Each structure stands twice: as structure tokens, then as C-alpha cells.
Amino acid sequence: MKKTAIVTGANSGMGKATTLALMNKDYHVIMACRSQSRGQRALDEVTKQARSGSSDLYICDLSSLTSIKEFSDQVHQNFNGLDLLINNAGVILTSRQETAQGFEMQLGVNHIGHFYLTNLVLDLLQEKSPARIVNVSSGAHKAGKINFNDIHMEKGYGTFKAYSRSKLANILFTRELAKRLEGTKVTVNACHPGAVGTSMGVNRETGFGKGLLRFLGLFFLTPEQGADTAVFLATSDEVAGISGQYFYKRKPAKISKTAANDLIAQKLWTVTEMLIEPFS
Is residue 58 flagged as an active site residue? Predict the structure, then answer.
């Protein structure tokens, strides 16, 4: 019987590479994508390339809590359990933008959206346990800081400042969720994929950034190489039962002092719940 996985941001880059890798391990992959057209192209591509497994496309815009809830409702209608959730999608933005609910976009998509999605489908993961959650973070988290007095970065916005903060949030979320899942058979771990050449940071409307991306691609990992540790955490018997850890190149890796701070992790959880509560 096929195992079932959700992969967010499955239409390109590491998300698509992760989807294909899981299909080749005979998973059924729910491809959570923001765009119907890009998602359909990716679905067609992985279907042609995969040696086994299967996949289907569901629309999920992580910048909208409404879209996330609709996605969760559809998954609940069509599946009675999940074996795996890979929170892979992410954005890097050169200018400050806001989500549909008014959250700063990088924090809103990279952390808040995945926080909300994970909690909405947690019952399905517990239904099929042992089950796993993998959060794709980044080594950039080491530069991250969270100012709870300006959670939406309305003052002093910076691209890397916002991105590193969102990746720090991924690890804090992973560690706090692991504590809350103690005694269950659902594990959660985070990973740094390495420097991967993907379309993150490329403006889809203007194409700005494509030339730089092609140049950097000479030095960056391929999406397949970047997906390796996430797929390892998702499927390997070597990490069965391990939870709350951060991995790089399939090995446990050091995290920043802030990422290791239990009080900050607890506070971020509480603040995130408070941000979501008026809209859920």
C-alpha cells in the first residue's frame, strides 16, 4: 500500500525534485502548489519521469490562511491519513510585502503558513503514525533574530534580515512541535538543503534575477542535491524515532543559540497562534 505525502511548493526546484524522489520510492504525493498552471506542468513532468508512485495537484497558497484551510479541507475529504508532510515552499523578497491577512510575507509564507498547515493536518499524520514532518530551513537561520515588538518588520525591513528570521522560525517551530509530539509516533525534523540554485528570488512577472541565477547555478547545488537531506529525513530508517533535530548533509548540525532557546520557541508558538486566531 502506497504511503501518502504532502510536499509544499512542489511545482519547481527542490519541491519538484522531492516529489519525484518520493514517487520513485512508491509514494503518492499531494503536490501543494500556489499556481494551477505551474503546478499542472510540474505534475505532467514528474508523472512522465517517475518509475513508480503517483501524484496529484492541489492548490494551496501559503500566503493565504483561507487557501490553506481550503486545502486542508480537501485533503481531509479525500484521504484518511498521511504518512509524511514536507514543508518545503519558501519565498525571498527584495521589498516588503504582506500576505492576505497582513503578515510580513517572508514570515507569513515560510513560517506562519506552514505552522497553520501543519496543525490543520496533524490529525491525519497521527492517524497513520508512525509519520514524519520535515521542515526545510536554512543555514541562514544563524543570522536570524526575532523582534516580537515588530513581528511584521514594519521598521527596518531587509531581504536577508527577513529571510533569516523566517528560517530561524522554522527551527524554533520544529523544536517546539517535537516537544508537543512527545509520546506520539509523529516525528519532526528540520534541515538545511545547502546553497541550491532554484527560482527563489526571481521575479516571475519581470524575469529579474534569471541571469544571476544562471550564473550562480554554476556554483550551486542542483535541486536534486538540495532535496537529498529532506528525502533522507522523510524516508530513511536511520532517523526513525529521531525528532526535534536539525540536519545538514544527512548529519545532525549545530544551530544558533537563538534557535536553541526554548523560551523563544515557546513564545514564537504562542505569538503565531495569536496571529492566526482571528482568521481561523
Answer: no
